[in-house]
Amino acid sequence: MKSTSKLLASDKAWLAALVSPENRVAIDFHRIPAFYTARRGWFTEPTPFGQHLLYCVVSGSFRLREGKKEHPVEPGTLLWIPPWSSFRCWLPDERPASFFRFRLRMESPRGEILARRNTPLLLQGAGAARHWIEEVVRASGREGGPLQNWRLRAALLGLFVEILSPQTHEASDGQLRPQQREELEKWAHRDGKVQITPAQLAARLGLSADYFTRLFRKTYGLSPRAWIVRERVRMAAARLLESNLNISEVAGEFGYQNIFFFSRQFKQVIGQSPNQYRRATSR
């Protein structure tokens, strides 16, 4: 039997509901792994479980059909599908697509399924949201305890603050525009094995290096060089999960000649060693 649902009236109400101890919040990784590589024949459609579906695309792309509209879901894109939405996702060709994904169910004390929207949200240029997706995955993988639920809620709060923030959709003064962010992220993710420089990023947007760096820092909260390292490590992390290569081989693919240096940067970015990450995320 389908549960009743309640559409919350504001973003603030949704965020408050996430951290309210009265509401039950659950993440489902039992039916789907946290990181997945979709291959030929993959598709997904609505489920009867009253769950929100969230996808963060790392490489490749798939298609979303919502009613009569179709949209590409490409690297750096976050897709939020609320319960009982009418949609279909599928691979348009034989090229695989890799993404983080999870299902979220939030239930009131009266058994109502809580939602903020009733149609899918496709957020392009949402690279910053990936950090919070990974935090959700890590928090869900921790051993139980009195603080485990709060770790999970804190990660979910960070994720949805990022998703719902006006700055995520529309740049304020002194920041890169969403189209510029999308261009950078697509270009940087096109081939992570080719090392790029901050000067090349600036040239890609047709900006001077100094002006680009100021805009970049205000947009992402870190320097272009630190961002390049972060994105390269994230692509290496995805490669660890979608392949059977050993850590040294993955490091070499992404230009690291020293595995110890790779492991140090990996832990700085991901918060776990490559071995720990591979064990914890491939569940």
Describe this structure in words.
By secondary structure, the chain is α+β, with helices and mostly antiparallel strands. The chain folds into two domains: 5-168, Regulatory protein AraC (Jelly Rolls), CATH 2.60.120; 173-281, Homeodomain-like (Arc Repressor Mutant, subunit A, Orthogonal Bundle), CATH 1.10.10. 44% of the residues lie in helices and 20% in strands. The chain has eleven helices and twelve strands. It has helices at 11-19, 127-141, 148-164, 166-169, 178-190, 198-205, 209-220, 224-242, 247-253, 259-270, 274-281, and strands spanning 5-7, 24-28, 35-38, 43-44, 52-59, 62-66, 69-73, 78-81, 88-90, 97-107, 113-115, 121-123. The strands form three sheets. Strands 2, 3, 5, 8, 10 and 12 form a six-stranded antiparallel sheet that branches. The chain has a four-stranded antiparallel sheet with strand order 4-9-6-7, with no helix packed on it.
Architecture blueprint of SSEs:
Elements: E1 5-7, H1 11-19, E2 24-28, E3 35-38, E4 43-44, E5 52-59, E6 62-66, E7 69-73, E8 78-81, E9 88-90, E10 97-107, E11 113-115, E12 121-123, H2 127-141, H3 148-164, H4 166-169, H5 178-190, H6 198-205, H7 209-220, H8 224-242, H9 247-253, H10 259-270, H11 274-281
Parallel strand pairs: 1-11
Antiparallel strand pairs: 2-10, 3-10, 4-9, 5-8, 5-10, 6-7, 6-9, 8-12
Helix pairs in contact: 1-3, 2-3, 8-10
